[in-house]
Amino acid sequence: MTTPDIHVHVEHTMGTAISIHIVDPRDDPAVRDAVRACVEELRDIDRVFSPYRADSDISRIRAGDLRIRDADPRVAEVAAACADYEHATGGLFAASWRGGFDPTGYVKGWAVEHASRRHLAPLLASARAIGINAGGDLQLFTAQDSDWVWDVGIADPRRPGSVLATMQVTNGAVATSGPAERGSHIIDPRTGHRTHGIASVTVVADSLAHADVWATAAVAAGPSDTTWIAASRTSTGMLVTDNGAIARWIGSTPVEVTSLSSWAA
Q: Which of 92, 153, 221, 224 is most solvent-facing, going by the fewest CB within 10 Å?
């Protein structure tokens, strides 16, 4: 079997490392141009949505200096999507609970999916497969006539640097949420309190924006509530609790719950 030629381009934007992986690309200047355009669009989205920039539209909206309807048109698009997801998740996800509009939990997945579909997906005419990784969240594409499959490792939240499982994805998105990498940073918008009980949730779906929202919602739901699975319309996923249990599902059906006690260090 021929070893694939994988070109990787890495940039830092939106507060994380963004890597674009192109499998067996042809020598085509359009590939380089598309990668550059994708990164530039992500930086432009960060300019509009970053809560850490005082001049961003989001910061100005939160400060009362700008209305959503007068902001960059993408802000209204994101606000509408966030409202839809707040309804779909039963309030497990929200963008307006902290005294103002804050779509941070949605924007990264949406931005990466939007920019990659616009700039990278068309390159499948010049490559076997293309994927983008934004801090562990992935949007993956494979050419129709290609046998390429992406092997996606799921990090073990209890053993940094170890892989708990591997999922194979041809076309789709993978998002992971939880406190393992960034500490307890997710708030249950229904209570305003930090979430607890979930070590990590990995969700696979067609859309990274969709996967990202539901991974976050699952952490807010906690270990005793898996009713969100049926509503999520996700492909599959894995949930790891703080006490060492794994729950897996395919579609809307939980398929396995096991103990991780034998994995403990």
A: 224
How many CB atoms neighbour CB 80 within 10 A? 11
**pLDDT score, position 253:** 66
With a cut of 50, list the residues of the chain below it in pLDDT: 257, 259-265
Token representation of residue 23: 């499998």
Domain range enclosing 69: 6-142+149-255
For residue 226, being part of any structural domain is answered with: yes
Q: How many domains does the chain have?
A: 1
Chain-centre distance of CA 251, in angstroms? 18
Query: Tell me, what's the pLDDT at 3?
Result: 84
* Beta carbons within 10 angstroms of residue 9's beta carbon: 16
Please report the pLDDT score of residue 156 as a whole number. 86
Structure tokens of 253? Answer: 């059906």
Q: Which amino acid is at 257?
A: V
Asked if the structure places residue 260 within a domain, the reply is: no
- In this structure, the strands spanning 236-241 and 137-142 are unpaired
Contacts of 151 (CB under 8 A, 6+ apart): 166, 167, 168
In terms of Cα–Cα distance, which of 196, 199, 180, 208 is closest to 42? Answer: 208
